[in-house]
Each structure stands twice: as structure tokens, then as C-alpha cells.
Amino acid sequence: MRQELINVLYAYKNEFASGNEPLGTIKGNEVDITLNIDRPYPPVLRRPAYPASPRAREALMVADFGALNTYTVPNRCPIPRIQETLTQLSKAKYITSMDALKGFDQNVLIPKAKKLLEIITNCCIYQYLRMPFGIKNAPSHYQRMINTIFPTELSEGWLIIYNDDIIICSDSLSLQLERLARVNMKILLNKSKFGFEELKALANIVSG
């Protein structure tokens, strides 16, 4: 099995990232934002940027999307329950755990959504190009995108995806990597574990 696993990982080596780059650009699931008000939009939708906590490893500029979220039409999608997910993991002989590289950031915004996600600095106005944390419907969009890519695997219960965590409860790793490659989703290699009988997943130690 070890050599098989090495062969599969080598065949799909371009789907893995060792750091923050290359960031994937997921195809076919562009992000839209629908508001419940008509134009002209109130100026409060533009928000000032401010630096993230100084304890962060990188200097980040973020924004408060509270006003935008107030006017955003809800687009709900159920998120998996962790307890049910752990029950599925207990039936697996081998478990593979992969981590999507900045999962939200791999989702591209359509032009209209970029316009709504403008942030103001003291020198200019910026637009987000990727789906940021903090906007309404972001978790729902991500989960719906996952459901669209892997409908059969998720319904059969041997593929589990919870936020950035991708867990495979069978030996069909090559099929999943092929589908991730098709939509251009990148995986963080140094946070992935392949073919374990027991490993830590979803903040719990699980085994088959």
C-alpha cells in the first residue's frame, strides 16, 4: 500500500502546496452576493480597513462586513454535524486527512460581489478578489460548492468534508485528487496525513 500511495501522490503532486502558494482558484462556483435593497446602495456598505491583531503571524488588513451582512439575502446550506461525521469515521479501515489551503480564499468573486466588498484606506479603495471570512453566506457557499463537486461520495459516506478538512474513509484517494484537480482546489501538504489506521481528525482521535 505504501508504494501505491506514493505513486498516487506523485501523480497528483501539482494539487499540493507546501506553503501559502500556489493558491487554488476553484472553477465553476463563483461567489455572488444578493442584497435585499435597490440601488443606490447606502454609503455605509463601504467600510474602512484596519490591521488584524498584532499577535497574528502576518500583517493583515481586514474589514467589518456587519452593514453589508444586514442587507444580504440569506442563502443557507446545512453544515455537517461533527458527531455524525465521527460515527462515519469509526467504520473506516484506513483514514486519509487533507487540509484545503485557505479554503474560502480559493473561491473567486463575480464582478458585482467585488464591487460590494470594497474597503477604504487613507490612500485608495481596494476590492476583495476572493471570498473573505466574515461575509454572510460564506460558509454556506463553501459547503454548497463541496456538495456540488462530490455528491455521490458524500451521500455514500466515505468522503467527509468539514470546512477545510477533507477526510477519506477508503482507499480511493486517486479519485478524490483527480476531482480536486478538475476544479483546481489546492491541498496543504504539510497538514495532510495519508492511509492511517488512527489519526486526529476534527479535533478528535479516531480509528476504524
TrEMBL record:
What domain of life does the UniProt record list for this protein's source?
Eukaryota
Give the range the annotation lists for the signal sequence: none
Residue stretches spanning the membrane: none
**InterPro entries, per the entry:** DNA/RNA_pol_sf, Rev_trsase/Diguanyl_cyclase, RNA-dir_DNA_polymerase, RT_dom
Concerning CDD domains, the annotation shows: RT_LTR
| Domain called Reverse transcriptase: residue spans | 63-195
The cross-references to Pfam families, in alphabetical order and at most eight, read: RVT_1
Its name, as the record gives it, is Reverse transcriptase domain-containing protein
Q: Which organism is it from?
A: Austropuccinia psidii MF-1
